[in-house]
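Two proteins were folded this term; both appear here.
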Amino acid sequence: MQHGPAVRRRKLGAELRALRTAAGLTSGDAARLAGWHQSKVSRIETGTSGTKPADVRLLLDVYGVDDPQLRELLLVLSGTGDGDGRHHWWHAYRGVLPPTYRDFISLESQASAMRTLETAVVPGLLQTPEYARAVTAAALEGASEERLDALVEVRLARQDVLRAEPPLELWAVLDEAVLRREVGGPEVMERQLDRLVEASRLPQVRLQVLPFSAGAHIGVTGPFVIFSFPRTSDLDVVVHDHLTTSHYLERKEDLRAYSEAFEALASHALSPEESSEFIAGAAAGA
């Protein structure tokens, strides 16, 4: 289990190594064409040191990588984005967001799919403004109104990934406790549940409810997120959120274990159609 930046360096290095190999180049060849010492290429590929975006761009040019989507993804892994800045809007909130949250958002912005188990609150991508504010205020007791405003803005801006082209595919399994926990008062909760019903009808969103009647399940160990990325599964990562930080799991065995756990949870949950009806019933006070 590692922090996000270290995981990203390792994943970036592994992908650059694969691209170099596909280009038929040795590490010595790549260093010579880039005008570097061979040790620099080795450090980048092993993830032992940070990589400047300019260095990533140069290597991608050396390897003949012109796919804009792949270039953008690898630049995000280096800690930035390419192009006109649309994909790293969160930089404007650097003074408010901790590094681990910025890291999470950058991965979310480039992922093609997201699977999440939520056991306590509605997923951030589906929260209403009022619900988001109530959750944030509870998590950051004593925070100023200005900081709360900024964090809610960030939460709502993140939701643009569901409206992008192509949109992020979101598959969420919600423990029934998410629907029963009154956040922000009855009216806020009612609007939030209505929002979930609306979201469940979107083609890019799959919502399933794990009812209390399902009993104990593997998800009682806590919520998690699995990000999947376009073109390669080698960049997939599991994210665990904690009170003060986030941890990332990248090993293939970990990814397989969490993917299997998520599939098991989904199999015990209500179907998407049944879940939509269940949520509507909760909104009506059933």
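Next, the second protein.
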Amino acid sequence: MLGPVILAASRSDKMRRFVSAAPGTKQVVGRFIAGETVEQVVPIVRETTARGLEVTLDVVGEDITTREQAFAARDAYLELIDRLKALDLGTRAEMSVKLSMFGQALDGGHELALSNVRPVVEAAAAIGTTVTLDAEDHTTLDSMFAIHEELRKDFPQTGCVIQAYLFRTEEDARRLAANGSRVRIVKGAYKEPASVAYQDKAEIDKAYVRILGILMEGDGYPMIGSHDPRLIAIGQELARRAGRKLDEYEFQMLYGIRSDEHVRLAAEGHRMRVYTAYGTDWYGYFMRRLAEKPANLLFFVRSMITKN
């Protein structure tokens, strides 16, 4: 099982330096990361939305160690919102944020993350769009859900993410569905112990279907985060059984993965949102993409041994 090994490497400074210096890294990172600056990503947003797709934008960077870095992360999102304002795309271009990037793991991190993310959510609402709080490892989730609940008091469109591989998620899904929340469901991409998470792929898939059914039958807005053709088809069937119209749920996939499927779903009338990450601190995000699919790792290794 290479996935857990790669996820462990995502926390290694030594591996970070090695991967960053490898000759093929830039080519492969470019498959998953839309650029390093907001100037580079804005044209991609224009192109993506012109094809009938929607986007959620993630400024990558998680392992911050100072309050100054947390403030810089907040400011990076505010700059992004300022650039999106001119595009006038509304909810077709939203944002995803990781609260670790806003200082959640620092001393007083819960309050710091809330105070940093609130102006981002306010600015997003001012241009007619919204923010989704990404899920990270299980130790951060109580804080994330509490911040989500607090933000929804003033900005009910604020979304959050749940991870199917965690035992707790069915209960979280029932609560969020009853509250009418926007919820993205994903399988999960962090190294979690067997005491809190399913380890077997088949069990994770079964949990994903159960949880998606809860969301579809609830009062919220489900966002199906998956590239798995079988889960996509099941999502469509669950939506049909729940009597949901095409604009009452959406699919989400990662930039650079199954791009033909993005277009196919949009052509069928589905809302299809592309999770588009950009920024210079790409390492943790990139390693999780490798861990999710062995073919991604093979592509990377081949590129590493190919001369530029």
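Residues 303-308 have pLDDT under 50 and may be disordered. Strands lie at 54-59, 93-97, 131-133, 159-163, 182-186, 221-225, 250-254, 272-278. These notes refer to the second protein only.
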